[in-house]
Amino acid sequence: MIRRRISAAPPWSLAVTAMLFIQLSSALSVGLIAELGATGIAWLRISLGAVVFLVIARPPLRLMRRSDIPAVLGLGAATGLMTLSFLSALERIPLGTAVAIEFLGPLTVASIRSGTRRMLIWPALAFVGVVLMTEPWHGEIDLVGVGFALLAGVGWGPICCSRRRWGIASLG
User: Fold this and answer.
1) d(CA 130, CA 55)
2) How far apart are CA 90 and CA 111, in angstroms?
3) HSE on the CB side for 103, CA within 13 Å?
4) Which of helix, strand or coil describes residue 87?
């Protein structure tokens, strides 16, 4: 007989809570970037996130095999690069613009992984919305900031496509 662990919280509530904390930490980061810089804030966010993860998930690290280490390190590197890129974008462009551009990454991954070509309309429409929101034809856009936000969006690819292990939720 296989025992299944039943969570008290429904999955959608965990997703909403995660989104709330991600956006709240992003909003709080904007004011601190001038003081600590993107690198300092990235270190704080990742360190605090790791502590919260260890407290809440208590991953069974003793079950990790040597062959799992490259995947875990790769996921950590992708997360770090994504976080640093996003915070570097916040140094240059408004929070709403950076979030909208970054969100193109996970939206595209979800659309591709759906297996249906017509789902690709959603990232395309979102891209049109981002272009309309940023109004690049006025020439007041920081291309380096947009580049950092796009790099942060690309960083969602390995994160969304990673395997579910040690309590790490993913689309895969």
Assistant:
1) 37
2) 26
3) 18
4) helix
Print the SS3 string covering 8-72. CCCHHHHHHHHHHHHHHHHHHHHHHHHHHHHHHHHHHHHHHHHHHHHHHHCCCHHHCCHHHHHHH
Take residue 28 and report the two structure tokens written for it. Answer: 């709080």
Query: Using alpha carbons only, what angle is made at residue 140 by residues 91 and 130, rounded to the nearest 5 degrees?
Result: 75
User: Which residue has tokens 């969570």?
Assistant: 7
Each of the 172 residues of the chain gets a pLDDT tens digit; together they read 455 555 577 777 877 887 788 788 888 888 888 889 999 999 998 888 888 888 887 778 788 888 888 888 888 888 889 999 999 999 999 888 898 899 888 888 888 888 888 888 998 999 999 888 888 888 778 889 999 999 999 887 666 665 444 444 443 3
Which amino acid is present at 96?
A: G
Rounded to whole angstroms, the Cα distance separating 141 from 127 reads: 16
In the structure encoding, which two tokens stand for residue 44, read together?
């704080």
